[in-house]
Amino acid sequence: MILAVNILMLVLVLAPVVLVVWMSFTPSASFVLPLTAFSLRWYREALSYPGFIDAFFLSAELAALASLITIALTFLAAYGLVRFRPPGSEALMSFFTSPLLVPAVVFGIAMLQFVNRLGLYNRLAGLVLAHVVLVVPFAIRSLAATLRSVPEDLEWAAMILGRSRAGMLVRVTLPLCARGLVTAFLFCFLLSFSEVTTTIFMTGPALQTLPVRIYTYMSDRIDPTVAAVSALVVFISLALVVALNLMGGLRRLGTR
Amino acid sequence: MTGSSPVTAELATLAAPRAARAGAPVRSAPALFITPLVLVMAVGFVWPLFQVLANSFHPNTPQGIDVAHWTLDNYRRLVDPLYASILWRTLRISAAVTAITALLAYPVALFLARLSPRAQSWMVLAYVSPWLVNTVVKALGWTLLLRGNGVINTVLRELDIISAPLRLLLTETGVVIALVPGHFMFVLLPLWTAISALDPALAWAAGTLGATPFGVFRRVILPLTLPALLVGLVINFIMNMTAFAIPMLLGGVRNEVASMLAYQINLVSLDWPLGGALAAALLLLTSTLVWAGQRAALMGVARRGAKP
User: In the A/B pair of chains, how many CB contacts fall below 8 A?
Assistant: First the structure.
């Protein structure tokens, strides 16, 4: 019984993703199963559709910017919290992870009204700010865990031997945290790259990330072109997930 | 200082005077590290939330939000039969998804916990990775599965289980079917962690005392891991309540849920004070749930005298 439930659940979880990838290789103009032939026709079609290409580069730029800013700010904050343990550390940690408790729709509404007031509607800057807030909770947990695993003794040793705190940070702590930093960056990139709900509230037709672009396309019509784009998204996400798993990053998700 | 080796102690005494000499800079150091992130979060998170809350107490006029006047009208307008029916549908769908998830979570988590560590890590990856693919792509997959000539209907017809295609797309049932696996991970991960942390000797001891496998589950595993399940279910319910792309693309406008209403009010009607009131109401509802869930989980732990 347990095995049956597990198989059913695994099928339900994986089926939609697998099906999209499978269908994207159809040579015909509609979705017919089973596939009898294999074709890259719809990939050519998708890659020559400027709407998707522009959206892809916007998404990649947004995810890279938001993740870099998040990692920089969060690494400093995590260092401050873990190494100095100032009064109120616990409260600050809860504050940094609190965006998790705010539903994406509520945050989307708030950001819409906020960016409009600041004149940032349809601007990359507004999106970057929103995505930074959305990924900070994941980054701070992951980087705090990384910093706890780096022996403080090594930092003390470097400072006793004459390095300033800044010099020590750059020459000792950063290299020791490299793996954790890369993992956190990949994870933030992945989350930002696939964010839909908040983003959809913040952008008009002039500035659409790839998920939002696919969403608008799908509201209009469903054809193998959109399956091919979606399959490309799956490949990119999967590559990042496997990289993350190999670096041991996903295990930390479960332990929170 | 962590660690307590003689070397550590030596280093600490050596370093202490140096830290003391540095004086003020050391005391202000944590603030230097933490302030940038606090500022960004204040501007990008706290301010927008307060802004939207403030907007919800102002009247909407054709010229925009009238910030000179304060009113509770937007909240009164939320109590509308149409909105109530949308909220009722949202609650109905979310509760159905959470209930189904609760039934399926234990078999899967128990199965995972029994595998070898290596197999566990790959199985967890299989459950988690679809979550990291964006929801729109999954909605496309579900459309291909659920529609009249889609995979599910084709398979059922080939097997002669049904004669006419089932109507699954653009129904509440379709939305529920797609949301269950979509948000399953939020319950599975905490539950799996809790079950893995159980001492295997407990189940063994209960077995030697004559408990059946189901008895072991009901009397030992279930009570010890119920708080973890509860935490996961609360998150799951909130995710269901505020899901956007799946209900929109699979349920359609005929099965409008709260998040679609929020989109409608904020981006089509452009009635931001009303949209703000809706956001505040949703946030209040979800925070109450989180609080209640955490309390229930903590009480569950306290009652058995275990460490939280």
Answer: 278
Q: How far is CA A105 from CA B98, B262, B287, in A?
A: 19, 8, 14
Residue A45 forms part of a structural domain: no
Interface test with B, best of A42, A83, A109 (most B CBs within 10 A): A109
Structure token digits, residue B75? 């909240």
Q: How many structural domains are present in chain B?
A: 2
pLDDT tens for each residue of B267-291: 998 999 999 999 999 999 989 988 8
pLDDT in tens, A18-60: 999 988 888 877 776 666 778 888 899 889 988 899 999 999 9
Q: Measured between alpha carbons, how far is A54 from A67 in angstroms, rounded to an integer?
A: 20
Considering only A23-37, A181-195, A206-220, B233-247, which range has the smallest mean pLDDT? A23-37
Query: A101 to chain B: which residues are within 8 Å by CB?
Result: 286-287, 290
DSSP code at position B65: E
pLDDT tier at B33, thresholds 50, 70, 90: very high
What's the domain range around B296?
74-303
Neighbours of A152 (CB within 10 A): 18
Domain total in chain A:
1
Using a CB–CB cutoff of 8 Å, tell me whether A77 touches chain B: yes
What single letter denotes the amino acid at residue A70? T
Q: Which residues contact A254 (CB under 8 A, 6 or more apart)?
A: B124, B189, B190, B192, B193
